[in-house]
Amino acid sequence: MVVAQDWVNWPPELAERYRGAGHWQGLTFGEQLARWAVSYAGRTALVDGGRRWTYAELDVAVQRLCTGLARLGIRRGDRVILQLPNRAEFVLSWFALVRLGAVPVHAMPAHRRSEITHLARLADVAGYLVADQYGHFDYRELAAQVQQDTGLRHVIVAGDPGEHTGFVALAELMAADPEPGPADPPAADDLALLLLSGGTTGMPKLVPRTHDDYSYNARRAAEVCELTEESVYLAVLPIAFNYTMSCPGMLGVLQVGGKVVLAPAPGPQTAFELIEREGVTIAAINPPLVPHWLAEAERGEADLSSLRVLQVGSARLADDLAAVVTKKLDCRLQQVFGMAEGLLCLTRLDDPDDLVHTTQGVPISPDDELRVVDPQDQEVPLGQTGELLTRGPYTLRGYYRAAEHNQRAFTADGFYRTGDLVRLTPTGHVIVVGRAKDQINRGGQKIDATEVEGHLLALPGVVSAALVAEPDPVLGERSVAFLTCTGDAPDAKALTVFFRDRGVAAYKVPDRLLVVDAMPLTAVGKVDKKTLKHQYLG
């Protein structure tokens, strides 16, 4: 069972206010799925290749798996790492865990031993749910390593468990005769899931979300996006992303009785085939995918007439590129600015083009509170740049098991320091300018400089290391590693092998290496990254 001090809930007076406003409806996701199964029984809920589930079928399948997990020994409050690609098994497992009252810890398919071991220890997980193989990688070997590192009790494999002793096939758990419900059901204000934060120091932090707040996040986003029973959502990016889950994502579409279509790969050809076949009405991608979508659309081989809204988010979309999207694709562009920690901003479907092309939208909730402040926490005049602080009915009040960090990440009155530098327009639209945090946003993948620098310093002969961002026309930003060495510096191939052997995700390998004789230092003896950028990157 998760104890209260592991995470910070909303103060009682604010919780009551959010309930009174109807934001929090007191329903767990398991209860909601049961209601959807009645309201939308015969409608298609989920599509994965040739496999389809109606809402009624989805509810039954989830209940079978929920029963199987309970018989395995998973209990309310247990944390379970969920690392699956865009397959129906992710959706079924997620709903089964939250219905049981267990807490899925979202991990990305690209994560490896370093990241997963960190998550397992931080969350004290009871289980780890993985695919057998995906993208030419064997996750069973990874699971065996993590189990050896941490002693986690259960490893569940979607597919063939192989020869690993004690690994359980997900299919076996899904074949259980369904029992009426969990013996110890969760409450709506319980911890429902743990999302990953990009973080600013060390390894990723965990973002606690409750059934109440996460449900509101998805439901309100669905309202802003004007979703209906006829909406068909294409999950292009990894479904474990907050963006793909609830902005409005999978959860928002299911709340209104629409259809979720899982794309097995993010490439535009795959996406366009699914748009045409399934009549997709809304899809969500990141900026690096935009040029590829535009190029594929120019070929004119797929019928995209069903697509009404294309969301672009997870990184800043260049204004010029936003204008091209509007011209080249016969659908509405919607810019998205959000974070796993909570706050979600969307441009509205009836916003004029100039706002859609140049801003990242307005908050979805009337109870979202925003402050834009200078380094002394004083609010700046409207239109000036400052750091964004926020609080609201779906924005966290503290990271999971991070009491010391929370002292710095939140104000005394509960505002979250996002680290994003923004400007506000007179209409309330947010313009993202940059970040105060030492973090690189490589095509939507958040790379913590401190973590990568730690790996670089483990290289033989490396004396000092600094990782900085460099603009990139496709990725938005790419990473540049500066090294001082006592001997020969590693080349790109050696660096890739080194990171792989350490179990680090491939996207964290620096895109460029530059060797310098000495690192410039600030007055207090820290590496001066501003000077590095000015001297070497222009």
Automatic annotation (TrEMBL):
Gene3D superfamilies: 3.30.300.30, 3.40.50.980, Luciferase, Domain 3 (2.30.38.10). GO terms for molecular function: acid-thiol ligase activity. It holds the Pfam family AMP-binding_C. InterPro entries: AMP-bd_C (IPR025110), AMP-bd_C_sf (IPR045851), AMP-binding_CS (IPR020845), AMP-dep_synth/lig_dom (IPR000873), ATP-dep_AMP-bd_enzyme (IPR050237). The keyword Ligase applies. Residues 451-526 form the AMP-binding enzyme C-terminal domain. Coiled coil: none annotated. The keyword Zinc-finger does not apply. It comes from the Bacteria. Residues 34-400 form the AMP-dependent synthetase/ligase domain. Keywords: Ligase. This is 2,3-dihydroxybenzoate-AMP ligase. It comes from Goodfellowiella coeruleoviolacea.
